């Protein structure tokens, strides 16, 4: 393990570019001073012990904490937030496990009583660890450390709440919009408005107009529905969800889910067989350089697809002048929707220093921490002449402040309309509720989609089988 002063917050690896590029604007004003709202005045509170500090909530912060993540490869979004915690609590020792999260190792460490004090978890799988008794309920942490949960996006908070208790503090936030290749549409005499997910018949026709195949070899994808990952979004567009709101009942056998999957699969099979589609998308022109200058928009190998908003930052860097338009994903009634996911910071049930861990989580997800992160990245992008489309978070107050201050037509360039659309739709996010079999449930429904794509199994059959398996997993996982 390495000490905290080496490089910075290690909750983030190279993926932090994607993870911290999530979120949107809120409606509540953020603090305007550069001093964190919860920062101490610089001197220890009267009566406190040497080597300890007092949080804004009045709790004593001292000792050592271990963060369950790598220190290496932390970027400016990570280090700036860590630096804020260090400046507030210089006598708190922070170390890092220098290992990626591994479910088996984590559960074993909790059982043995020696887990890290803070761990990042995808909100989609948090319920699995709650059911295993591996996570500390944070209600006391929230109360004692005066964490204002209203600052976080409602859907993100719902995704970390089980049986009325909060088990994680929302960190990143992903939402989806549709990215459109202008040159491909213009060549087909179409406009961005023709990419309309509310009209499935029309979208199928547009897909066939945009795709190109030569003797079974795909040369351009028309509209990529992004399966299996975006099945919940297609189900929502068809007026349903893949699991009940309380996370207790699988809804995979809902005919509306099957209808949504059948339709999304049809957009793929219009190109030929699904394996060929996947191979082209992954290994074909553009696909192999998804993060580079020869991406699928630059190579004109795709017409349009829904995508997480962090990809705007990627394209802004590598293809700043590429003609790309943006449209919302719509349900079949024409309402704008998006699918929300992201990370949360949690405290293991047997952590040694839960008080310092709670304050750490509070600080690094605060508006001021995110402001420091956005400032750092905006400065670096400005210095290098690269586009900056924002640092997206699950903290709506932070986003409101940061996007107003740092993101403009000048900083984001051609991607500014995409930024504005993300901010417009982020609070229309549907999200999957936590469930006791979160990891298993995700695996089961994604494997069902793969059966339809790769084995030719009907959506109805694959989802019926998956529903039975998923319900058994949910029932068996109940504590």
Give a quick rundown of the structure.
With 479 residues, the protein is an alpha+beta fold. The protein has 19 helices and 18 strands.
CATH classification class of the largest domain:
Alpha Beta
Helical stretch tally: 19
**Named CATH topology of the largest domain:** D-Maltodextrin-Binding Protein, domain 2
Our estimate of the beta-strand percent is 5-15%
Distance between the termini: 34 Å
Report the strand count. 18
Low-confidence stretches: 1-52
CATH architecture descriptor text of the largest domain: 3-Layer(aba) Sandwich
Over the alpha carbons, how many angstroms does the gyration radius reach? 23 Å
Q: Please, what is the CATH homologous superfamily of the largest domain?
A: Periplasmic binding protein-like II
Largest sheet: 5 strands, mixed
Count of structural domains: 2
Give the proportion of residues in helices.
40-55%
3D structure, described in words:
The protein is α+β, with helices and mostly antiparallel strands and 479 residues long. It folds into 2 domains: 2-174 and 342-410, 3-Layer(aba) Sandwich (D-Maltodextrin-Binding Protein, domain 2), CATH 3.40.190; 176-339 and 436-477, D-Maltodextrin-Binding Protein, domain 2, CATH 3.40.190. 40% of the residues lie in helices and 14% in strands. The chain has helices spanning 16-19, 76-88, 103-112, 126-131, 139-144, 154-158, 182-187, 200-210, 231-237, 255-269, 274-283, 311-318, 354-364, 367-384, 396-406, 409-412, 416-425, 438-455, 459-477; strands at 2-3, 52-54, 60-62, 64-67, 93-96, 119-122, 161-162, 165-166, 169-170, 176-181, 212-214, 217-223, 302-308, 324-327, 329-330, 336-339, 343-346, 429-430. The strands form 6 sheets. The protein has a 5-stranded mixed beta sheet. Strand 11 (212-214) and strand 12 form a beta hairpin. Helix 14 packs parallel to helix 15. The longest helix has 19 residues, at 459-477. Residues 1-52 have low confidence and may be disordered.
